[in-house]
Amino acid sequence: AANFDTGYVIDKSITISGESDQIVFDGGITVTNGAKVTLSNLSINRYSDELNCIQVRKHSSLIANGISLINHANTGQNYPIIYVDGESTAKFDNLYIKKSNIKDGYHRIYVENANLEISNGNLNCKVFLLKGKAHLQNIIINYSDGNAIDIRQKSSLNLQNVNITGGVAAKIFPCLYSDNSIFISLDFRNGL
Asked: Is 46 helix (H, G, I), strand (E, B) or coil?
Protein backbone atom coordinates (compact mmCIF):
# COMPACT_ATOMS: atom_id res chain seq x y z
CA ALA A 1 0.00 0.00 0.00
CA ALA A 2 1.13 3.52 -0.67
CA ASN A 3 2.20 5.65 2.25
CA PHE A 4 0.18 8.84 2.49
CA ASP A 5 1.09 9.68 6.09
CA THR A 6 0.90 13.44 5.80
CA GLY A 7 -0.14 15.53 8.76
CA TYR A 8 -2.63 18.36 8.27
CA VAL A 9 -2.58 21.38 10.60
CA ILE A 10 -5.82 23.30 11.06
CA ASP A 11 -5.48 26.64 12.84
CA LYS A 12 -8.70 28.28 11.64
CA SER A 13 -12.31 27.34 12.37
CA ILE A 14 -13.63 24.88 9.78
CA THR A 15 -16.09 22.02 9.23
CA ILE A 16 -15.07 18.87 7.36
CA SER A 17 -17.95 16.53 6.64
CA GLY A 18 -18.37 13.28 4.76
CA GLU A 19 -22.10 13.98 4.40
CA SER A 20 -23.84 10.59 4.59
CA ASP A 21 -20.86 8.40 3.58
CA GLN A 22 -17.63 8.10 5.52
CA ILE A 23 -14.68 9.76 3.76
CA VAL A 24 -11.31 8.00 4.08
CA PHE A 25 -8.69 10.52 5.14
CA ASP A 26 -5.04 9.41 5.00
CA GLY A 27 -2.94 11.44 7.43
CA GLY A 28 -3.34 12.94 10.85
CA ILE A 29 -5.21 16.11 11.80
CA THR A 30 -3.87 18.68 14.26
CA VAL A 31 -6.27 21.35 15.55
CA THR A 32 -4.33 24.23 17.13
CA ASN A 33 -4.12 27.93 18.02
CA GLY A 34 -7.68 28.29 19.30
CA ALA A 35 -9.35 26.84 16.20
CA LYS A 36 -12.89 25.45 16.50
CA VAL A 37 -13.21 22.44 14.21
CA THR A 38 -16.10 20.11 13.42
CA LEU A 39 -15.46 16.74 11.79
CA SER A 40 -18.09 14.26 10.71
CA ASN A 41 -18.18 10.92 8.92
CA LEU A 42 -14.41 10.47 8.53
CA SER A 43 -12.11 7.48 8.68
CA ILE A 44 -8.64 8.78 9.59
CA ASN A 45 -5.78 6.43 8.76
CA ARG A 46 -2.08 6.46 9.70
CA TYR A 47 0.46 4.04 8.29
CA SER A 48 3.58 4.59 10.43
CA ASP A 49 4.41 4.29 14.11
CA GLU A 50 4.96 7.33 16.37
CA LEU A 51 2.07 9.28 14.84
CA ASN A 52 -1.25 10.60 16.19
CA CYS A 53 -4.47 10.40 14.19
CA ILE A 54 -5.91 13.49 15.94
CA GLN A 55 -4.24 16.21 18.03
CA VAL A 56 -6.15 19.05 19.72
CA ARG A 57 -3.81 21.68 21.19
CA LYS A 58 -3.42 25.29 22.40
CA HIS A 59 -6.93 26.24 23.57
CA SER A 60 -8.64 24.63 20.58
CA SER A 61 -11.89 22.69 20.37
CA LEU A 62 -12.96 19.73 18.30
CA ILE A 63 -16.47 18.35 17.85
CA ALA A 64 -16.44 15.06 15.95
CA ASN A 65 -19.22 12.67 14.93
CA GLY A 66 -18.96 9.33 13.13
CA ILE A 67 -15.16 9.02 13.30
CA SER A 68 -13.03 5.89 12.79
CA LEU A 69 -9.33 6.01 13.72
CA ILE A 70 -6.89 3.39 12.47
CA ASN A 71 -3.11 3.15 12.63
CA HIS A 72 -1.97 0.40 10.27
CA ALA A 73 1.66 0.24 11.54
CA ASN A 74 2.92 -3.24 12.40
CA THR A 75 6.26 -2.40 14.02
CA GLY A 76 7.78 0.37 16.12
CA GLN A 77 6.18 2.36 18.94
CA ASN A 78 2.63 3.62 19.39
CA TYR A 79 1.97 7.30 20.00
CA PRO A 80 -1.47 8.32 21.30
CA ILE A 81 -4.09 7.82 18.61
CA ILE A 82 -5.82 10.92 20.06
CA TYR A 83 -3.76 13.58 21.86
CA VAL A 84 -5.47 16.50 23.64
CA ASP A 85 -3.62 19.15 25.70
CA GLY A 86 -3.22 22.87 26.34
CA GLU A 87 -6.63 23.57 27.89
CA SER A 88 -8.33 22.25 24.77
CA THR A 89 -11.59 20.32 24.46
CA ALA A 90 -12.40 17.31 22.30
CA LYS A 91 -15.95 15.94 22.01
CA PHE A 92 -16.72 12.74 20.11
CA ASP A 93 -19.99 11.01 19.31
CA ASN A 94 -19.93 7.61 17.58
CA LEU A 95 -16.16 7.03 17.80
CA TYR A 96 -14.41 3.83 16.71
CA ILE A 97 -10.72 3.18 17.43
CA LYS A 98 -9.24 0.04 15.90
CA LYS A 99 -6.96 -2.22 17.93
CA SER A 100 -3.25 -1.57 17.34
CA ASN A 101 -1.00 -4.18 15.74
CA ILE A 102 1.81 -2.94 18.01
CA LYS A 103 1.45 -4.41 21.51
CA ASP A 104 3.57 -1.95 23.54
CA GLY A 105 0.96 -0.65 26.04
CA TYR A 106 0.89 2.86 24.54
CA HIS A 107 -2.06 2.71 22.13
CA ARG A 108 -4.18 5.31 23.90
CA ILE A 109 -6.21 8.46 24.06
CA TYR A 110 -3.95 10.91 25.94
CA VAL A 111 -5.47 13.93 27.71
CA GLU A 112 -3.24 16.38 29.61
CA ASN A 113 -4.60 19.58 31.15
CA ALA A 114 -7.60 19.35 28.82
CA ASN A 115 -11.16 18.00 28.52
CA LEU A 116 -12.51 14.96 26.72
CA GLU A 117 -16.10 13.80 26.14
CA ILE A 118 -17.00 10.62 24.28
CA SER A 119 -20.53 9.32 23.74
CA ASN A 120 -21.30 6.09 21.91
CA GLY A 121 -17.96 4.53 21.14
CA ASN A 122 -15.96 1.37 20.69
CA LEU A 123 -12.43 2.06 21.93
CA ASN A 124 -9.75 -0.59 21.46
CA CYS A 125 -7.19 1.49 23.32
CA LYS A 126 -6.33 2.86 26.75
CA VAL A 127 -7.80 6.12 28.09
CA PHE A 128 -5.05 8.09 29.89
CA LEU A 129 -5.62 11.35 31.82
CA LEU A 130 -2.93 13.59 33.34
CA LYS A 131 -4.48 16.64 35.07
CA GLY A 132 -7.38 16.06 32.70
CA LYS A 133 -11.16 15.73 32.82
CA ALA A 134 -13.21 13.21 30.89
CA HIS A 135 -16.81 12.06 30.57
CA LEU A 136 -17.40 8.71 28.85
CA GLN A 137 -20.95 7.54 28.12
CA ASN A 138 -22.24 4.43 26.30
CA ILE A 139 -18.73 3.17 25.60
CA ILE A 140 -17.05 -0.20 25.16
CA ILE A 141 -13.35 -0.17 26.07
CA ASN A 142 -11.32 -3.25 25.16
CA TYR A 143 -7.60 -3.01 25.92
CA SER A 144 -5.44 -5.85 27.20
CA ASP A 145 -1.92 -4.44 26.62
CA GLY A 146 -1.98 -2.45 29.89
CA ASN A 147 -4.45 -0.55 32.08
CA ALA A 148 -7.65 0.11 30.13
CA ILE A 149 -8.11 3.37 32.07
CA ASP A 150 -5.24 5.25 33.74
CA ILE A 151 -5.87 8.59 35.47
CA ARG A 152 -3.21 10.62 37.32
CA GLN A 153 -2.40 13.93 39.03
CA LYS A 154 -5.78 15.31 40.02
CA SER A 155 -7.64 14.06 36.97
CA SER A 156 -11.36 13.37 37.10
CA LEU A 157 -13.33 10.81 35.16
CA ASN A 158 -17.09 10.28 34.87
CA LEU A 159 -18.16 6.88 33.50
CA GLN A 160 -21.78 6.22 32.51
CA ASN A 161 -22.81 2.91 30.95
CA VAL A 162 -19.23 1.89 30.14
CA ASN A 163 -18.18 -1.73 29.57
CA ILE A 164 -14.45 -2.25 30.21
CA THR A 165 -12.41 -5.32 29.32
CA GLY A 166 -8.71 -5.05 29.93
CA GLY A 167 -5.70 -4.90 32.14
CA VAL A 168 -2.90 -7.45 32.37
CA ALA A 169 -3.18 -9.58 35.51
CA ALA A 170 0.19 -11.30 34.89
CA LYS A 171 1.96 -7.91 34.93
CA ILE A 172 -0.21 -6.51 37.75
CA PHE A 173 -1.79 -3.86 35.48
CA PRO A 174 -5.37 -3.47 36.75
CA CYS A 175 -8.18 -2.60 34.41
CA LEU A 176 -8.62 0.77 36.19
CA TYR A 177 -5.69 2.69 37.68
CA SER A 178 -5.94 5.96 39.62
CA ASP A 179 -3.14 7.98 41.22
CA ASN A 180 -4.19 11.13 43.14
CA SER A 181 -7.34 11.38 41.01
CA ILE A 182 -11.06 10.67 41.32
CA PHE A 183 -13.75 8.74 39.53
CA ILE A 184 -16.74 11.08 39.81
CA SER A 185 -19.37 8.54 38.85
CA LEU A 186 -18.94 4.88 38.14
CA ASP A 187 -21.46 2.96 36.08
CA PHE A 188 -19.36 0.34 34.34
CA ARG A 189 -18.99 -3.39 33.87
CA ASN A 190 -15.57 -5.00 34.01
CA GLY A 191 -15.34 -7.77 31.46
CA LEU A 192 -12.09 -9.18 32.85
From this structure: strand
